[in-house]
């Protein structure tokens, strides 16, 4: 299948999202990354940040390609999981950068899912006040969302992604064949972010998913269908980022489902739900709010719920979570402005809007309406 390039053109930088599934001797195309980095003016030392499971599958081929292209490469391994997305992990990357002698002309490479990408990107943004970095996402969630757009950061104990920086990559290299090793639950979780694009911007993406006979596993997609899904997701994310690089306005719509989703992750200590699972519940809640204030029809809210469940995602709020804890977590959300919690709510499939005209009683009523019996 031919590679696809989606350019991201920003006032301060330009880079490519390259979707390339041609298999090399190592079973994937990551061996080509080094030559692609050289073609974009990168050279010298490269520190690859990953975690042990991903490194076991893919690091050897990637490192071989870097060395063949003339890079001096070293691996830095971190524990996997959202609960390790902390300043302590960033300090470990900084320690490795210091020991390896990374300079301003060196490159930091993120090989992993969204957590690794966020941490490696933030470490690159803060090492020597900013060095180049490259995203090599190995999870569907990172491919369709986290690796694109330059958002980097870590969590604070009181809220998700409160510590971070905007730092755009020099290249995003996406190889769908690496998803063969992705656990089924993580593949399903990522579909929440794809469904999000359908609701906020791209009805064709929503309908494409509705038309799939099955949806929740890697094996449910042909290579051509999966490439189409990745290309359209990248195009959606790139378009929004190009209009609003640093979330001054429009880009906030990418957080559809995330206000309550992030709160749910926080109050369950990042142990009960994967990110996409929490976002899926958050989208159902946002749809309930939109329906209650007259923005969205019952029929379209139901279409969203059915598609979320078809993707193998949860659609009900869990029982036993104190509302006060949820409220506290929401108030730590990055979209809060002048003390008001703001929500992205849909008007129809393909159109959504940021608003602060929702009161907390409406939010609570919506959450109670979708709470598991």
TrEMBL record:
Binding-site residues, Zn(2+): 193, 258, 275
Residue ranges of every copy of the 3-dehydroquinate synthase C-terminal domain listed in the record: 191-336
Free-text comment on the cofactor: Binds 1 divalent metal cation per subunit. Can use either Co(2+) or Zn(2+).
Keyword field contains Ligase: no
Keywords: Amino-acid biosynthesis, Aromatic amino acid biosynthesis, Cobalt, Cytoplasm, Lyase, Metal-binding, NAD, Nucleotide-binding, Zinc
Catalytic activity, reaction form: 7-phospho-2-dehydro-3-deoxy-D-arabino-heptonate = 3-dehydroquinate + phosphate
Domain spans labelled 3-dehydroquinate synthase N-terminal: 77-188
Name of the featured protein: 3-dehydroquinate synthase
Organism: Thermostichus vulcanus str. 'Rupite'
Gene expressing this chain: aroB
């Amino acid at each position: 299948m031919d590679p696809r390039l989606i350019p991201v053109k920003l006032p301060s930088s330009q880079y490519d999202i390259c979707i390339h599934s041609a298999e090399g001797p190592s079973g994937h195309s990551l061996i080509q990354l080094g030559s692609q980095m050289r073609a974009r003016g990168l050279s010298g030392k490269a520190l690859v940040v990953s975690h042990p499971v991903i490194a076991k599958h893919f690091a050897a081929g990637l490192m071989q390609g870097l060395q063949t292209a003339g890079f001096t490469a070293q691996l830095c391994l971190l524990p996997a999981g959202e609960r390790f997305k902390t300043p302590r992990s960033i300090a470990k990357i900084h320690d490795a950068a210091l020991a390896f002698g990374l300079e301003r002309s060196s490159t930091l490479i993120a090989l992993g899912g969204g957590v690794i990408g966020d941490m490696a990107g933030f470490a690159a943004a803060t090492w020597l006040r900013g060095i180049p970095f490259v995203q090599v996402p190995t999870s569907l969630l990172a491919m369709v969302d986290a690796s694109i757009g330059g958002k980097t950061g870590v969590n604070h104990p009181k809220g998700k992604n409160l510590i971070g920086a905007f730092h755009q990559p020099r290249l995003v290299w996406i190889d769908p064949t690496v998803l063969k090793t992705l656990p089924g639950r993580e593949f399903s979780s990522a579909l929440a972010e794809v469904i999000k694009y359908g609701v906020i911007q791209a009805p064709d993406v929503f309908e494409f998913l509705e038309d799939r006979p099955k949806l929740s596993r890697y094996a449910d997609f042909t290579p051509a269908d999966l490439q189409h899904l990745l290309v359209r997701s990248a195009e959606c994310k790139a378009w929004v980022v190009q209009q609003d690089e640093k979330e001054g306005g429009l880009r906030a719509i990418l957080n559809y489902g995330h206000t309550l989703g992030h709160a749910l992750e926080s109050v369950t200590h990042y142990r009960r739900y994967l990110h996409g699972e929490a976002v899926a519940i958050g989208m159902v809640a946002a749809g309930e709010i939109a329906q209650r204030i007259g923005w969205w029809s019952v029929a379209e809210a139901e279409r969203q719920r059915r598609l979320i469940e078809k993707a193998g995602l949860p659609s009900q709020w869990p029982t036993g979570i104190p509302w006060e804890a949820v409220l506290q977590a929401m108030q730590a959300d990055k979209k809060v402005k002048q003390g008001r919690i703001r929500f992205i709510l849909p008007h129809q499939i393909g159109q959504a809007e940021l608003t602060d005209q929702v009161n907390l009683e409406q939010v609570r009523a919506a959450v109670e309406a979708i709470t598991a019996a």
